[in-house]
């Protein structure tokens, strides 16, 4: 009886792990179907060079497939990643994502991409990707990167990267990037992520900019701050 219980626990655990990540596709590809996936077609033309996605209702892990006989090369390509992002913002950085919204042929393939531009001393604030591991490559400049391990250690693992260096941010862990190249020196990196829809949770935005707001007394106690400081922080977001 004990062995049978252990076997059931093992099977249940294995099954849970198997469904925790995006499944392997059972066909060559599954181009996201504009007609059935909630794509708004006001900006959609015959060459499929621009898409806007509005999720009406999610009933599957991904989007419904277009008839494979209707697939064209534009479903699998994206133009513009060579263009620098606008970093004139308080963070001094710009993320240009390339995911299933931009390449419908990525649907069910479990990968996506992002270009990140950094102004001098620009940062990508601490954030997490709840559904993806990220591997970052520096194309230009010098970046300090790092992530924090989970409780109870909360160890900071950080490194300064030069052009051509690569760094991995494990799935779900808080991480950041900062341009440390110096005055007048911009930086560029490119990231690959192990999900077609990795998601982003920016820590400061989530904590101090939630809608509706987290009660100030909770944040004051959690961060050992007075309520007026919490109020000021919430106003920033």
TrEMBL record:
Residue sites binding oxalate per the record: 129, 134
Residues that coordinate or bind Mn(2+): 127, 129, 134, 175
Disulphide bridges: 30-65
Signal sequence segment: 1-20
Compartmental location: Secreted, Extracellular space, Apoplast
Gene Ontology, cellular component aspect: apoplast
Keyword Disulfide bond: yes
Keywords: Apoplast, Disulfide bond, Glycoprotein, Manganese, Metal-binding, Secreted, Signal
Statement: the UniProt record of this protein carries the keyword Mitochondrion: no
Span of domain Cupin type-1: 79-231
Superkingdom assignment: Eukaryota
A Pfam family annotated for this UniProt entry: Cupin_1
Record-level Gene Ontology MF annotations: manganese ion binding
Family: Belongs to the germin family.
Protein task: May play a role in plant defense. Probably has no oxalate oxidase activity even if the active site is conserved.
Name of the molecule in the record: Germin-like protein
Source taxonomy: Eukaryota, Viridiplantae, Streptophyta, Embryophyta, Tracheophyta
């Amino acid at each position: 009886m004990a062995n049978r219980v252990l076997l059931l626990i093992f099977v249940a655990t294995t099954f849970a792990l198997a469904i925790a990540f995006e499944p392997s596709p059972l066909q060559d590809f599954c181009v996201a179907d504009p007609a059935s996936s909630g794509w708004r077609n006001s900006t959609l033309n015959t060459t499929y060079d621009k898409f806007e996605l509005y999720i009406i209702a999610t009933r599957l892990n991904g989007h419904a497939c277009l008839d494979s006989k209707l697939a064209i090369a534009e479903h699998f390509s994206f133009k513009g990643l060579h263009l620098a992002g606008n970093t004139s913002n308080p963070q001094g950085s710009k993320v240009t994502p390339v995911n299933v919204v931009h390449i419908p042929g990525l649907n069910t393939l479990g990968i996506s991409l992002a270009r990140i531009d950094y102004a001098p001393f620009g940062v990508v604030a601490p954030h997490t990707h709840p559904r993806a591991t990220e591997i970052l490559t520096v194309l230009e400049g010098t970046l300090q990167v790092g992530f924090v391990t989970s409780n109870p250690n909360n160890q900071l693992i950080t490194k300064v990267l030069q052009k051509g260096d690569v760094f991995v941010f494990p799935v779900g862990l808080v991480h950041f990037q900062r341009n440390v190249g110096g005055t007048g020196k911009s930086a560029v990196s490119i990231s690959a992520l192990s999900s077609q829809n990795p998601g982003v949770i920016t820590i400061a935005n989530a904590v101090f900019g939630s809608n509706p707001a987290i009660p100030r007394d909770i944040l004051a106690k959690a961060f050992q701050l007075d309520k007026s400081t919490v109020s000021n922080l919430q106003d920033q977001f």
